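We emphasize that the prediction below concerns an isolated chain of 213 residues; any contacts that depend on oligomerization or on bound cofactors are therefore not represented. The input was used exactly as deposited, without trimming of termini.
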Amino acid sequence: MSPVDGRDPGVEVMRSCAAEFVARVTARNRLPLDYSVASLRIVDFLIDGLRKGGAEREQVRDTLFGLGAYVGEVLVRRAGAVWVDFDTDQRGYFGQPVGVRMPDGRVWNPLGKVRNRFDLGGPGESLQTFYLTLHGRARGSRRVSRTSAALAVLLAAALTGFADSTDEGKPGESARRTARSSQAAPAEPRTAPEFLARAKEATAGQKGWTFAV
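Result of the prediction step, given as a token string:
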């Protein structure tokens, strides 16, 4: 754990710790740490990089704490969790001063999960998998924003041949020519299932391409 002014951190500082960590690590790197579920895969990569670099846990203690704060904040923003101070028994069990409580009342230990990923590695300690298999998280809507849907259409067009390769960087002109062609352009997906079906169709048969949420 990382002390704050010589003390164990409490719930009142966890959100700011996550924000400060994101600001620090993204200042010179274009890492998409946007508090999305998908960004937890970036956390996995970052921890794996620390492991492969041969760092000792104490050397990267503050970084691991920042990553843990970030993972916890993703749970707060995406899964309906709240930060909680652990009681004495919970501190002894989890080895951390703070954690999160899910809507169903269960408590989880994101700081410890990050530490386990660093200590043990392997797919079984993935932070993204931890979220996706987490009990008690809020089941929110899986809507896709207009921007995401538009980008998905461009991706599908590029991969399936709807877009002319000679018009790279000119999606507007390519779209106009496609609209005039005998083969109508695919309608913009309006729901998450339509978006996923379009993307999977676009990536089908493309060696090396995968699509997951």
